[in-house]
Amino acid sequence: MMWIWIAFIAFVLLMLALDLGVFHRKAHVVSVKEALAWSAVWLSMGLSFSVFVYFAYDGQWFSLGTVADAVDGLTNGGATATEKYLTGYVVEKSLSIDNIFVIAMIFGFFAVQPLYQHRVLFWGILGALVLRGAMIGIGAKLIAEFHWVLYIFAVFLILTAIKMLFLKTDHTDPNKNIVVRLTRRLFPVTARFHGEHFVVRAGAPASYESEIPGAPMVPDEVVDRAQPGTLLLTPLALALIMVETTDLIFAVDSIPAIFAITSDPFLVFSSNVFAILGLRSLYFALAGMVEKFRYLKFSLALVLMVVGVKMLLAEWLKLALGKHFNLYLMTVILAILVAGVAASLLAERHRRDA
User: Fold this and answer.
1) Hey, is 190 helix, strand or coil?
2) Residue 209 zone, left/alpha/beta (φ > 0; ψ -120 to 50; rest)
3) How far apart are CA 114 and CA 48, in angstroms?
4) What is the Cα–Cα distance from 326 to 259, expressed in whole angstroms?
5) C-alpha pair distances (Å), 319 with each of 72, 160, 315, 322, 324
6) Is the confidence at residue 214, as pLDDT, over 50?
7) What is the distance between the alpha carbons of residues 277 and 282, in angstroms, rounded to a whole number?
8) H or E segment at 297?
9) Contacts of 111 (CB under 8 A, 6+ apart)
10) What is the predicted pLDDT for the residue at 279?
11) CA distance 189 to 217
C-alpha cells in the first residue's frame, strides 16, 4: 500500500515542478485563453485518473480495494471505486470554486499585480495539499475508529449550507483575520511590493509603489534604516498567508463532504489533489466573471446540503438505490451546478437587456 502513496505523491510533485519550473518559469500575466487550456489539461488528467482507479481496485493492485469502506460497508471494486472517485472529484471541484470568489477579493484587497498572482496561488496550493493530506489522514482514522463521527460531519455540512444560504460573507476584511494580525505583530512587513519576493532583506528596492490599507506596516524609509540583513515580509507574503488560511477554512467544509462518499484514504486524497491542482487555472479563467455567477453560491450551498443529507441517510439510500447510489448522487450534484450556472447566465443576460 505504501508504494502507491509514494508513486502518487511523486507524480504530483513532478507535475508541480514542471508547472513552476518549466511552463511558468518566468512571471507573466496568465491570459484567459491560457487559463482555459490549462483547465482542460488538469480536468482531463483528473478524469483520466479514474481509469487507473478502476483497474487498480478491480485488480487489487497495491492492496487497494481489500478493506471494507466504513461509509457503506462495501469493499470497493473497480466500478464502485471509480464512482466514488468521480463523485468525490465533482464535489471537491465544485466546492473549490467558492475559493475563487475569496481569492479574487484577497488579490483585490492587497493589490496583487496579475503578474505575480500565479506565484502566490502555486505556493498557496502546495501548502493546501500538505494541510489537506494531514486532515484526510486524521479524518480517515477517526471514521475507522468511530463511525458515528460521520453523523457529526453530516450535521456540520447541513449547518454550513444554511449559513451559506442566509449569511453574507462576501466582504470580509483580511485585516481582521487573526493569522494576518498575528503575522504583522511577529514580523515587520514592508509597505510596498518587491517583485515576486515573499521575503526581502532591509534596503531592497521596491518594484512598484502600492500601499496596503488597514493595520500599519513598516514604512520603506524605516526599512531602509533597519539593521542590514534583517528579514522582512512583503505584502505578497500576506496575500499568500490569507490564501492558505482561507483554503484551510474551506477544507473544514470540503473534507467532511468527501467523507460522506468514501472513507478510503487514497480515493479521498487523490480526488482532493486533482480538484485542487486545477484551481489556479480555473481562477484565471473565471476571476473576471465571478460577479456574473450570482446564483453559484446558492448552488454550492445546496450541494453541501445534499451531501450532508446523503451522509445521514446512507444506509437507507443504499437499500433503496443499490450499491451504485453514489452515481445518482453525482448526477444530482452536476444538475444543481448546471442549474446554478444557467440561472446566473440568464439573469446576467436579462440585466444587460433591461
Assistant:
1) strand
2) beta
3) 31
4) 12
5) 11, 28, 7, 6, 10
6) no
7) 10
8) helix 296-312
9) 210, 212, 235
10) 82
11) 5
How many other CB atoms sit within 10 Å of the CB of residue 244? 20
CB 66 within 8 A of CB 60: yes
End-to-end alpha-carbon separation of the chain, Å?
60
- Cell numbers placing 202: 532591509
Lookup: cell for 226: 533597519
Residue whose C-alpha cell is 451522509: 311
Contact 177, 170 (CB under 8 A): no
CA 85 – CA 287 distance, rounded (Å): 27
Q: What is the average pLDDT across 127-149?
A: 81
Radius of gyration in angstroms for the set of CA atoms belonging to the chain, rounded to a whole number:
22
* 287 vs 247, more confident: 247
- Cell 487498480: give the residue: 56
- Cβ-contact 39, 97 below 8 angstroms: no
- Report the range of poorest mean pLDDT among 75-79, 254-258, 322-326: 322-326
The predicted model scores a pTM of 0.77
50, amino acid identity = S
Cell of 8: 502518487
Longest dimension (CA), the chain: 72
- Residue 288's alpha-carbon distances to 86, 97, 109, 274, 285, in angstroms, are 28, 13, 15, 23, 8
Q: In DSSP terms, which residues pair with 68 in a beta bridge?
A: 75
For residue 62 the three cell numbers come to: 497495491
Q: E strands of the chain, at which residues?
A: 199-201, 231-233
Of residues 162 and 59, more confidence is placed in 59
**Distance between CA atoms of residues 32 and 98, nearest Å:** 19
Backbone angles phi, psi at 292, to 5 degrees: -75, -25
- Residue 331 burial (CB count, 10 A): 12
Residue 110, phi then psi, degrees to nearest 5: -85, 0
